[in-house]
Design a protein that fits this description.
Layout lengths: L1 H12 L6 H9 L20 E4 L2 E3 L2 H11 L6 E5 L5 H10 L4 E5 L3 H11 L7 E4 L15 E4 L8 H6 L5 E6 L3 E7 L5 E7 L9
Parallel strand pairs: 3-4, 3-6, 4-5, 6-7
Antiparallel strand pairs: 1-2, 7-8, 8-9
Helix pairs in contact: 2-4
Length: 205
């Protein structure tokens, strides 16, 4: 726990980790529980780590930056695309609370098994983790208040914007090496803000 607390303190001192709710979620979900055994020694470094098949568990600084933008509230319904190791899924579940729900999608079969196995280390009843393409079920799920992407979209995230509930927020990386915050107001109008300088593996279908 000392190493986790050191990473936590560094994220606060850098100004990345700000919200009390995200601080609690970060400490409640130990990153070491979501990395392959051979990389556990590096779990508390502020860097991405391989989880197989060219996928990574994202850098803590990047994850926290995106969660701060997403502003998850208790009771939110969340759609996560590219759930991978399950680490971010677990933090989203903590943030959403027992009255919220996380629908997490990971299309790569072996990675999905890895993520599900990791999440079994915790006692979450508000996570549905799917090992298939989110597009297959998007129109069958309740409209999410929050959408988080864990892989870079080339284009074609219009269907996610359409699915987003009014007054909702979406944070996704794109192939243009940025992270985008997309907000929908109570009239359904959309505002988009870009944050450059981020590299993610691409979304696959």
């Amino acid at each position: 726990m000392n190493n986790l607390k050191k990473l936590y303190d560094n994220l606060i001192s850098e100004g990345t980790l700000k919200s009390d709710s995200i601080k609690r979620a970060f400490l409640a979900n130990d990153r070491a529980d979501f990395v392959p055994d051979k990389y556990k020694y590096y779990a508390y470094e502020d860097s991405p780590l391989p989880i197989g098949e060219g996928q990574t568990i994202s850098q803590p600084t990047t994850v926290i930056f995106m969660l701060e933008l997403l502003q998850v509230k208790q009771g939110n319904l969340i759609l996560e695309v590219g759930a991978g190791s399950g680490w971010v899924t677990a933090m989203l579940a903590t943030l959403a609370g027992k009255h919220g729900k996380v629908h997490a999608f990971e299309i790569k079969e072996n990675i999905a098994r890895f993520g599900q196995k990791n999440l079994l280390k915790y006692d979450y009843s508000n996570i549905a983790y799917y090992g298939n393409d989110y597009l297959e079920l998007l129109d069958k799920l309740p409209r999410p208040d929050r959408i988080l992407g864990g892989a870079a979209f080339q284009s074609g995230y219009r269907e996610l914007i359409d699915a987003l509930e009014k007054k909702g927020r979406m944070v996704i990386p794109t192939a243009a090496y940025d992270v985008r915050l997309i907000k929908k107001n109570d009239q359904g109008q959309v505002d988009e803000k870009l944050f450059p300088g981020f590299i993610f593996v691409p979304v696959t279908h």
